Amino acid sequence: GDFSGQLLAYLSLGPIFIIVGFVTLIIFKRELHTISFLGGLVFNEGVNWLIKNVIREPRPCEEAHSAVTTKYGMPSSHSQFMWFFSVYSFLFLYLRMHQTNNARFLDLLWRHVLSICLVTVALLVSYSRVYLLYHTWSQVLYGGVAGSIMAIAWFAFTQEILTPLFPRIAAWPISEFFLIRDTSLIPNILWFEYTVTRAEARNRQRKLGTKLQ
């Protein structure tokens, strides 16, 4: 009957939905930066597992959650995952999709709104781990700090090391076979895809109209 607990329990499933979303996005978009983002999330999870098994701090109520796969709770993997995702997305929005002098008000507004939503969800998921007695406040706090640091480091690594290599990787025969592409030089991929698709649709419509005459 605890509605708040049920809602927070559903929110704590956020990492699963994010992973499924990334796999779906990669299958349909096949973009190198998206693949790198997912690689960072997986690496972040590996670092979390390593830290947990080094510190070996137990969860606050081990007997309350017998189905948990690991008995260690420092740092919180949910908190670390969500803060990695949120901080990396924030950096992507404001640095990768860099603003221009003629950026429209709505373009900037949706970035601000999305950033606020990302931070809000990360805070709620982190809070849910304490509310549901999976973690202590310190375990959640250190998870958030670790995830944020990992996000900044992975974003810098992607931008400075991987991005210059993306054109070469996209030209590999195996990349061409799987239609893997590099959009690093396109500031706003959403606007680019929209304009290209619209132009192609109009062009095909004109050709179809010509044939019917």
Automatic annotation (TrEMBL):
<keyword id="KW-1133">Transmembrane helix</keyword>
<keyword id="KW-0256">Endoplasmic reticulum</keyword>
<feature type="transmembrane region" description="Helical">
    <location>
        <begin position="109"/>
        <end position="128"/>
    </location>
</feature>
<keyword id="KW-0378">Hydrolase</keyword>
<feature type="domain" description="Phosphatidic acid phosphatase type 2/haloperoxidase">
    <location>
        <begin position="34"/>
        <end position="155"/>
    </location>
</feature>
<keyword id="KW-0812">Transmembrane</keyword>
<dbReference type="InterPro" id="IPR039667">
    <property type="entry name" value="Dolichyldiphosphatase_PAP2"/>
</dbReference>
<dbReference type="GO" id="GO:0047874">
    <property type="term" value="F:dolichyldiphosphatase activity"/>
</dbReference>
<feature type="transmembrane region" description="Helical">
    <location>
        <begin position="81"/>
        <end position="97"/>
    </location>
</feature>
<dbReference type="GO" id="GO:0005789">
    <property type="term" value="C:endoplasmic reticulum membrane"/>
</dbReference>
<feature type="transmembrane region" description="Helical">
    <location>
        <begin position="7"/>
        <end position="28"/>
    </location>
</feature>
<protein>
    <recommendedName>
        <fullName>Dolichyldiphosphatase</fullName>
        <ecNumber>3.6.1.43</ecNumber>
    </recommendedName>
</protein>
<dbReference type="InterPro" id="IPR036938">
    <property type="entry name" value="PAP2/HPO_sf"/>
</dbReference>
<dbReference type="Pfam" id="PF01569">
    <property type="entry name" value="PAP2"/>
</dbReference>
<comment type="pathway">
    <text>Protein modification; protein glycosylation.</text>
</comment>
<dbReference type="GO" id="GO:0006487">
    <property type="term" value="P:protein N-linked glycosylation"/>
</dbReference>
<dbReference type="GO" id="GO:0008610">
    <property type="term" value="P:lipid biosynthetic process"/>
</dbReference>
<comment type="function">
    <text>Required for efficient N-glycosylation. Necessary for maintaining optimal levels of dolichol-linked oligosaccharides. Hydrolyzes dolichyl pyrophosphate at a very high rate and dolichyl monophosphate at a much lower rate. Does not act on phosphatidate.</text>
</comment>
<comment type="similarity">
    <text>Belongs to the dolichyldiphosphatase family.</text>
</comment>
<keyword id="KW-0472">Membrane</keyword>
<dbReference type="InterPro" id="IPR000326">
    <property type="entry name" value="PAP2/HPO"/>
</dbReference>
<feature type="transmembrane region" description="Helical">
    <location>
        <begin position="140"/>
        <end position="158"/>
    </location>
</feature>
